[in-house]
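in:
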């Protein structure tokens, strides 16, 4: 399950800005996007991932993604980082 993958990742970039930066720097292995996130927030990173060939995994909710990332608020996007 994707949430388990997020919990087990040794390094994450949580949030749209941090995840976008990770993708731009070529450090992201995979990007996890919450289906209930505002499309205006996630369009840029989704397009960036498609151009860069980075795998995108969609999860059901921002709340669960935030929890999997170990934060108390919802997360629209998280990137699993290559160390």
């Amino acid at each position: 399950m994707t949430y388990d993958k997020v919990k087990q990742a040794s390094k994450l970039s949580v949030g749209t800005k941090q995840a976008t930066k990770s993708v731009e720097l070529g450090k992201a292995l995979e990007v996890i996007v919450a289906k209930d996130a505002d499309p205006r927030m996630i369009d840029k990173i989704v397009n960036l991932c498609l151009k860069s060939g980075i795998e995108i995994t969609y999860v059901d909710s921002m709340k669960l993604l935030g929890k999997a990332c170990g934060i108390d608020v919802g997360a629209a996007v998280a990137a699993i980082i290559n160390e």
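note: The longest helix spans residues 39-52.
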